[in-house]
Amino acid sequence: MALRILFCGTPEFAVPSLRALLAAPGISIEAVITQPDRPRGRGQDMASPPVKEVALAAGLHVFQAEKIRGESSQEFIAKVKPDAIVIIAYGQIIPARLIEIPRLGWINVHASLLPKYRGAAPIQWAIINGETRTGVTTMRIDAGLDTGPVLETTELAIGADETAPELSRRLAEVGAPLIVSTLGKLERGEITARAQDNSLATLARPLKKEDGETDWSLSAQEIYNRIRGLDPWPGAFTTFRGQVMQFWGEPALNSEHGEPGAIRATHGEVLVACGGGTWLALSDVKLEGRKRIAARDFANGARLLPNEKLGA
């Protein structure tokens, strides 16, 4: 008899797992729960979540509610009475009264090796903090924030130049076979859930706009980590002559001395002095209200002054 599940998720990160579960033998997706359609883009036209688009294409019933804790959500889940609910990047906290409905629980795919990086932005903070390895964890959710018992994990390396969107895509693909494996083993009684060591827990809080403002006293590598981890939002930014400027670049070798934030064009490169005597080579910049351009074109047009600094 097929394992009857509900799939609960919203963004692109959840799509590979949904596709894998659709193709998995012995699993029946009874319906999909996802966030409501939202305005998107410059025209603010209503757009469906990526999970909804895949679900409808597969002929699945889609349930959308503004708040998962509402009575309509509880009635819907109780009526379906699934064996398990798979939840991936849904975007809302699940109340305890709903957690108790499926006999195997709510099974989450989380983009870190728990208990590290609990919270909303594990991929971004892992890169920002200079981690070299991360992974995916399946866990049974409880009333806490990513505090439930761990079921299975898959570990992988973070590329030295990998951005948050690139790593997110790889983790999503790794998570897909893992959730299929976890559900099968749960149904067969082949998994022993293990409690997380709370003393090792770290928090991956949601990103804020101000997280993108650059402190040039950090080393070039630390700033490069932030460029990668803050892509695409809020981006790494600073100020130039009173204007907000987003920038991209990577660490560079330079033996000159410079105060943190000092910018200069030299030998075909646009360099910014960082902490610890390190330098960042800018590749592109984007001043507020303008298009992204190559850093060399920016420097030529700006006519940089001697001892000019970013973020001043």
Could you describe the 3D structure shown?
The chain is elongated. The strands form three sheets. Strands 5-2-1-6-7-8-9 form a seven-stranded mixed β-sheet, sandwiched between helices. Strands 10, 11, 12, 13, 14 and 15 form a six-stranded antiparallel β-sheet that branches. It is of the alpha/beta class and 312 residues long. α1 (15-23) runs parallel beside α6 (164-188) and α5 packs antiparallel against α7 (220-229). The protein has two domains: 3-200, Formyl transferase, N-terminal domain (Rossmann fold), CATH 3.40.50; 209-302, Methionyl-tRNA Fmet Formyltransferase, Chain A, domain 2 (Roll). β13 and β14 (279-287) form a beta hairpin. It is built from eight helices and 15 strands.
List keywords for this structure.
15 strands; 8 helices; 312 residues; alpha/beta; seven-stranded mixed β-sheet; Methionyl-tRNA Fmet Formyltransferase, Chain A, domain 2; single chain; Rossmann fold
